[in-house]
Amino acid sequence: MDLLLNAVVLGVLLGCFYAAVSLGLSVSFGLLDVPHVAHPAFLILASYGVFFLNDSYDIDPLLGGLLITPLLFLLGLAAYRLYYETFEKRGSDAGVRGIAFLFGIAFIIEVLIILQFGVDQRSVSASYIGKAWRIGEMRIPVRLLVAFAVASALTILLALYLSRTFMGRAIRAVAQDQEALRLMGANPVRIKQWAFGIATAVLGIAGALLIIVAPVDPTLDRAYIGRTFCVVVMAGLGSMTGTLIAAIILGVAESIVLSTVGASWAPAISFAMLLGVLAIRPQGLLGRRS
Amino acid sequence: MSRNSVVFWIGAALFLAAVVLMTQVIGNQYPFFAGYVILQFIVLAVAWSILGGYAGYVNFGTSAFFGVGVYTAVFLVKAIGAPLAVQIAAAATVGALLGFAVGLLTLRMQGIFFSIATIAVTIVIETSVTNWRFVGGAAGIQIQRPPVMPPFDNYVQMLFFVQALLVVLAVATARYIQISWIGRGLQALKDDELAAECTGVPTLRLKVLACVISGALMCAAGAPAAMYLQYADPSSAFNLNYSVTVLAMSLIGGTAHWMGPVVGAILLGVTQQLLAVTISSEVNVLVLGIMLVLFVVAAPEGLLGLIGRLVRYRAGGKA
Amino acid sequence: MKRRALFGGVVAVAMVGLTSGVVAQQPPIKIGMSMAQTGGLAGGGKASLLGIEIWRDDVNARGGLLGRKVELVVYDDKSSASETPAIYSKLLDVDKVDFLFAPYATVPTAPLMPLVKQRGLLLMGNFSFQVNSKVGHDMWFNNAPWGPADSWASAFLDLGQKAGGKTMALLTADQEFAQNLALTAREVAKKRGISIVFDQAYPPNTVEFSGIIRALKAAKPDIVYVASYPPDSAGILRAVNEIGIGDDVKIFGGGMVGLQFASVMQNMGSLLNGVVNYNTWLPEPSMYYDGTKAFFETYTKRAVEAKVDPLGYYLAPFGYASGQLLEQAVKATGSLDQKAIAKYLHGNEIKTIVGPIAFSADGERKETATLMAQFRGVVDKNVEQFRSQGKQVILFPDQFKSGDLISPYEAAQK
């Protein structure tokens, strides 16, 4: 029982971390319909940026994540512009080719990282890594608590941004009805570009969390394609709170299986869950209907 | 039989004859080792585009089908020492069943949801095989080849020929689908699923049928890989590379015509084999990335589409 | 970045077979291999290759083999088993190499075993684990110091039992190498009457180990045997340091891959203290032989340029030793005949920079020289500290021993 409780607590923390790395995708794929398979590659790129700042200038990883956020925002703007010019502008059927294009981008990022940093795995150092917080018999790693706090804050901020600000509402509007927006005199492409910038910018913090929680290597992005899409789809496209809830469900399920049933079955369990959700509710747990 | 079909079957016969001749004349083994891999990718790419090209359903789970093919063969060899032909036939059957299951499961999913479901299927199957001790589990398994059958004096040459047969089978199937009512139905489904259904196209049945055929061919292509490598381990057999490479090949070639994936697979397959023994470094991955980006940007209809446009442009210029 | 491109170029040139400027009277002796330059094994593969290249340069400086220059033909196998058959066929049938070296690690090597057996070729193995046990090729020679299959687990469990251990926990990666280690560990434990109280395989790409470590701790084992891969080794150690593992644990470690690599050791820093883990070469006085010091002087210089592991203890000297094995066998038999060379290697003990090597019938070492060493007094963020002796004290085997086990694990962590 004690073990199970422990697994649940750890699962919640882990789930918040999954939410943090999936939030950007929830905007780019969930709201903008860009099948962003290069999202994890951007995430790893951000992690390496954080690593570079930490390793060379001894900058705290979270601060480093904040520092690279504006750069990532610009990168996001540029990436969307490129994607728009090559696909969306030309009309429908961007689906398959869009995916192939983004896979190509992901590979290029992967190689650039290898050329610059080598193939070895990298991690960062900070005062909160390697310590634990005790509550009675339970010990919780502080780095997971940091991930939990930052990820929840990030989710709330993003959800507030999308629901309370003018630009945020415009982004949600563009996801629902582009034509209506155009008729109202707003430029949907501008808004989508801005949204994609935001989606990429949050990767600064997410990348910092990734490298705080575990070491990274240049090919790690492949492992996160499945996980991040799983979270976003299970959440129902474009819902930030849904993303958090889905990520926590995934984290708890994985954690319980890891520490009780049999660790080697963990990936099958989470993805079987995803299949189940998709088969019964194709729009996700908390999704908007298409 | 139309004149077109006669030409096609003569071409196929010539191709197989050339393959047999190659195995009898060429003593050097390397062309067969490298050629086998290229042929294998042709089958995978052609099979992929039956679903991905004609019907527009992007399957990310090529590696799942390939890996299931590999492990069907491994299981049969380990359990009853089945011969190659049985391995392939069984793999095709299992692949058809798996395709059927995936088709049913994803019946209501469209677009990217289907793709994500196929990723999930891949991970679930890979994890199950990893936990299946009888076929070696995570530790992998070494397999002994039986003696080779005449007229071949080398097992890899025989595998090369077998894979060539599968190429003909796959291409003939894809071609038949393309020119028959199935292809037209799939095309309608791709253009507008709802409209197709309203006009009486049995979209769900067609989609499941495409899943079944595509799955059977992919698994069949995977089965001989067990004997080719004489070794199998889950992380190699279910490698994400198969999914991405096959997707890339089909798009680079063009998905509207059965020739597209064939051309794409030959082009990319040969490039990869050449790169593997020339540049031989991370630049390999870079080349795949750049090719993907360039092709989808510059030639949205693939190589075939590009050539078609050029031809039309020329003709237009003259007239 | 440029240097890397240049490196690719150099390999390319070597492959086309254009020998540089000087025309030797006789064609060079070609040694072919694939080596992971990309993918998960690339870090190890690149270090191993540098070791072999240093041998090539040394042997050529000494006038080559039988008066002929030695040339390496190297391709990238992308760390995958599916690439190697075609590559080795190219090496044999197109490049017509004279000798084959195996790629780094078991998975890329496994598909080659039937091939070399069928064609009756010598294959110098490179850190595979028990890849020949089912194939039974009599011309396979592994450069790794593993020795008999069960010696690895025996060595670790011996140390654990001597420290008073009666129960064991087994935590393994669900991947090829770790599973093979786990198999022998279970057998040895059974023979010795050690009961296994926890036995879990965790999947690749596991992010967080706190939960597993917590479950392991609850089983209250005396001996914790871990067989893990580089990304996970770091995660496991972190979780152990955060969650704690209980004061029952006498000895922790055994088969953690990754704790031999400089970048990982530097990252982990003081978390390493107390862990008893396998290794192959360490800078302890007992490990130096003829040429060892000179080798590491060259390696250290060239590693910076090649952007590979700055320490290079784990693989590189054994790559060099592979070359030495071949070199001495060729010199002694005076020919390139592979059967004669295999016979010589089976019948003679050969001196290398990693000590004398003698092979048993299956091509593995007659006796294990796999080290079990305990990390001590390691501080954070310093890679140079690992060059000094005493940071990894050798507990096993006896001929290399440089200290005794500090037990229990929690005491040694300090």
Could you please describe the fold and organization of this structure?
The complex is a heterotrimer of chains A (290), B (319) and C (414). In chain A, 74% of the residues lie in helices and 3% in strands. With 290 residues, chain A is mainly alpha-helical. In chain A, strands 1-2 form a two-stranded antiparallel sheet. In chain A, α2 (39-57) packs across α10 and α5 crosses α6 (166-176). In chain A, 60% of the residues are buried. Chain B has helices at 3-25, 30-54, 62-80, 84-105, 112-130, 155-179, 181-191, 193-198, 203-229, 234-237, 240-253, 259-276, 283-298, 302-318; strands spanning 141-142, 231-232. Chain B is globular. Chain C has two domains: 29-142 and 290-347, Response regulator (Rossmann fold, 3-Layer(aba) Sandwich), CATH 3.40.50.2300; 151-286 and 371-412, Response regulator (Rossmann fold, 3-Layer(aba) Sandwich). Chain C contains 14 helices and 14 strands. Chains in contact: A-B, A-C, B-C.
- The CATH architecture designation of the largest domain in chain C is 3-Layer(aba) Sandwich
Top-tier CATH class of the largest domain in chain C: Alpha Beta
How many E-type strands of chain B?
2
Q: How far is the first residue's CA from the last residue's CA of chain B?
A: 34 Å
Largest interface: A-C, 44 and 45 residues
Q: Uncertain spans of chain B, ≥5 residues at pLDDT below 50? A: none
Distance between the termini of chain C: 41 Å
Largest sheet of chain C: 7 strands, mixed
> In sequence order, what are the helices and strands of chain C, one letter per element?
HEHEHEHHEEHEHEHEHEHEHHHEEEEH
> Order of helices and strands of chain B, N to C?
HHHHHEHHHHEHHHHH
Give the strand order, joined by hyphens, for the main sheet of chain C. 7-6-8-9-10-13-14
DSSP summary, beta strand count of chain C:
14
Average pLDDT score of chain B: 88
Q: Number of folding domains of chain C?
A: 2
* CATH topology-level fold name of the largest domain in chain C: Rossmann fold
User: Roughly how much helix do the residues of chain C carry, as a percent range?
Assistant: 25-40%
Walk across the major sheet of chain B and give the strand order: 1-2
Figure out the total of helices of chain B.
14
